[in-house]
Design a protein that fits this description.
It is built from 11 helices and 8 strands. With 263 residues, it is an alpha/beta fold. Bound molecules: 5,10-methenyl-6,7,8-trihydrofolic acid (MHF), 3-methyl-2-oxobutanoic acid and magnesium ion. Magnesium ion binds next to loops. Its main location: cytoplasm.
Amino acid sequence: MKTIHDFLRAKEEGKKITMISTYDYWSARLCEKAEIDCILVGDSVGMVVNGLDTTLPVTVDEMIYHAKAVRRGAPDTFIVVDMPFLSYQVKKEDAVYNAGRIMKETGCNAVKIEGGEEVAEVIQKLVSVGIPVMGHLGLTPQSVHALGGYKVQGKTEEEQKRILRDAKILEQAGVFAVVLEAVPSKLAKEITEFLEVPTIGIGAGKETDGQVLVFHDMLGFFDRSPKFVKRYMEGGRLIKEALKNFKKEVQEGIFPGKEHTYD
Ligand SMILES: Nc1nc(=O)c2c([nH]1)NC[C@@H]1CN(c3ccc(C(=O)N[C@@H](CCC(=O)O)C(=O)O)cc3)CN21
Ligand SMILES: CC(C)C(=O)C(=O)O
Ligand SMILES: [Mg+2]
């Protein structure tokens, strides 16, 4: 099992970190077999698995349910769990309670929190009680309504300054890594060079210390995907063909064959 120190060392040694966002037993098993460095049980589960338009309705109980399944599938992989909307913003005490539940009930290794300066105190508190925290800057989907949509962040110089400043504040607060989502690669490079802790990018160019993608996106399960997604497989098409094949074979009396029958 990797530790937070292995991620720091990877940055020092210039070895890229790979992270995949996924939510269940079988996909976690495959990630572990493929030796992916880190699994993120993302609150994107609400959109990917549950068909919601945003991540906002996702609950702590739902995150725990998925994270337990992921841990069973990947017993030896470093697992980070997203803290969902409103589970850490209201009071520091809530954040400790919710992060504590996530750690205790799932056996994960760390939690992830979206935001900059406004969550620095919460992060400090979690780190002080022994809960490793991953930060998340740039496009923070839990603020989609405030951002006016899923849009690239850090386009203006003012925004860039704010994001870089937030990154420094997160490092001081004690995060062991930071996700940079949907920002120009130049800004991601600048943050990556400045920080001692690793950056993990999604739509942030190639200069970050690692990359993260959602399992279902990279395997092509959806017909539409954001610009930053590379499809390593046309999973949706392959599955649809298999389903059609099943229907055809049943209709034509080909399935089940002798080998599938208890005679
Ligand atoms: N399946 C999935 N993959 C993700 O990467 C992901 C989620 N869900 N849910 C939570 C957030 C939301 N994310 C998103 C969602 C949409 C865009 C998107 O549509 N981007 C457009 C427009 C960019 C712009 O206008 O600036 C694109 O074409 O890339 C980007 C990130 C990333 N996260
Ligand atoms: C896209 C990643 C970074 C995430 O936060 C998620 O999957 O919820
Ligand atoms: Mg998330």
